[in-house]
Each structure stands twice: as structure tokens, then as C-alpha cells.
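Protein modeling request. Please complete all fields; requests missing the sequence field cannot be processed.
Requester role: graduate student
Desired output: 3D structure, C-alpha cell encoding
Chains: 1
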Amino acid sequence: MITFAENSYMKLIERKNYLNKLISVKDTDVIKVVTGIRRCGKSTLFRMYINYLLEHEVKPENILTYNFEDFSMLPYLKNPEKLHTEIIAQTENSKKTYIFLDEVQNLENFERFIDSLHLRQNIDVYVTGSNSFLLSSELATLLTGRYIEIHILPFSFKEYIETTADHSRLDLLFAEYMYNGGFPGVCAMPDLMKKDYLRSIYNSIMEKDILVRNMWRKSENFDRLVRFMFDSIGSSLSAYSISKSFKNMGFNASPQTVETYIEAIRSSYLFYKTQRFNIKGKTILTTQEKYYAVDLGLKNMLLGQVANADMGHNLENIVYLELLRRGKTVNIGKANNAEIDFVCSNPGGDYEYIQVAWTAKEESTFQREIRPFELIKDYNKRILLTTDVEVVTSYKGIQKLNVIDWLLAE
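Delivered output (410 residues):
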């Protein structure tokens, strides 16, 4: 059996939310596709799930794992038929077999390879990918209605504090989390090595998931754009506005080029695009999108001290990612000429409005932050999240909560 690469120094944090999702779809007639940025814990999630299977009477011989970034898999990458034949030979007369294909996008004709395995009733297929190419390719068309995606993010703050024994100063742990980010490997690294480790993740994403995938050569404008996007978290961006800013700085990049680069960056899961939502008309607007980063550790590694120039937007980024983890559909809210940081639509059809501010201790700041709430003419939940340490307060139906308490809440 071919096994996943493991980091022996890493404390295993049980990611119950993701693990429970996998358990809930076990043996269902869909391909389970686990996506997420490199090093966010996809392979580790598979290991935890495999442990679950072994504890629930699945025999080791009925679990096959393949990592397509392992050098030993090189002979198969251009010859998927050979691997397919070997797998079928191992599973033909067996009970249910669970097959795990890690970074499967590296395999030639991976779409048809996966589909063919899925057609066999005694095989349950699980795959991972570090680039949305996996689901923007022929696979999505070929498997329409026959796959389910589970998207993974780096550690939440709740998961992050599980990596340390001392929980006495949550404020200090939160400051560390904002600076170092939540990549599992970073949490296990000595402080002196964290930045180097983050740089290795970033370089791997650039090379494998962007440049090689798109057959591009290294470009200063591309690297410049990534830094620009990290520096503009929480600000409205468009390809045209970025192109114009570059021109003002003496660099040439057409809006079309910028748009192409942004799509490649998003495909690697470095950034997530958030659209604007007209609260009154309940419609999505197609302009003034914002982009949030998958992890603030990468921002601090790339930008240095500049990364901490706007802690409010950094906090906004953390709240955005947490809302995604909680399964929310997240947009930016527009109420008349005012803006709500986040509008979350819930499965039941109701909405939740969230404002984020580093602090709102001053009465004038508090009133400025809640003013957009007062323009909304419905009775959905309104929350103001800050780092202020105080008891929960409510004002005109608006809850003011400490962001750490909110992040750690069930």
C-alpha cells in the first residue's frame, strides 16, 4: 500500500468538522473531492478518516492510498491505464474498497481515471487537489451530480490553540495567530523557522499551481500583483483599478492581463473573491468585489511590517474565513450608500449582518460602525465584532461581541 507523506513532528489536531463531513458521505454514490490550498491539511484529513475506517471494521487491505506527488508514482503519471489495471486487480473480488488519490490533478486524464473507478460498485473514491483546476476541468462536466466537494482551510483560531499547551493568555495566542497564520506545519515550527516555512509554501504554490499549470514564466508583474492583493485586503478591487495603479507606479499590465493573473491566483486558493450584495433588492452586484487571503501568515511573510498597517482589515480577513468554515455564503452588503462588512445567507433563507472593527470603545466610533445597521429595514441578526474586552452588550437589537469569544463559540 502506498502511503501519504507525513510530518512526524506535527501534533495531530482532529479536524472534527471536516472529518464528520467525510463520515457523513461514506459509502454514498458520489466521489468525495477534498480541495484546499497546499499544506492546509488535506492529506492529514485523509489519514484521520482512514483511522476512522480501521476502527470501524474496514480491513487494511481494503484501503488503497496514492500520492501523485510521490516520486514512486512517476511511472504512472503518463500511464494511468497501468495504475487502473493494478487497482482493479486488487479490488475485483474484495469487499468495499476505499481508494484515496492525493493531488490527483498530476495524473494524465485523471478525470476519466476517477470516473472509471467510481463506476464500480465495490469502490468508494476520495480525491484531493490543490488547485480549482480539478473542478473547473472536464471532471466537473463528466461527473455532474456525482461528486461532492469538501473545501478545507488552514487552522481556525479554535484549532490553532489546540496546538499549544498554555491557554492562559488567549489575547497573546490570538496575536500570534494573526501574525503566523494557521497552516498546520507553521504551528509545529520553531519561531525562527516559521517565515522560511511560509516562504516554501508560497514558492510551491507559485511554481506548481500557477506557473507550471498555466505554462507561464516567472513574471515580476505577477509577484507584484500578489503583494498588491495582500496589501489591499478588505478594499474594493478590479482588474481596471489595479492596472491603473500599476501604471501610476511605472509598471505596465493591461486590465486583461491582470484579470488573467487574478483568476490564476484564485484557482490556487490564495485568495477568495467576495461579491457585493444589494440588501434592499436582494441582488448580487457585479462591481467592486473584494478579495480575502487564505492565510495572514503569508501576508506577513511577504509584506513584513507593512502587513500590520491596517489591523482592522486583517481582523476582517479572519472573520471572513471563519464564516466560510461555518458554511456561510458570504457577501459584502450595500445598504443605500453605506456598506456592511459581511452579509451571510443561511440555509433557512434568513440573513445575518456582521460589522468588524478593531475597536469601538469610543462612542463616535461605535455609532459610525452601527450606522449601516440602522439603514436595514428587516429583523435579521446584527453583530458588531471587535477586540474590545467587555461583557456582551446589545444596543437596538445589535450585539457587540468580542471577536475571540465569537471565534471560540460552538
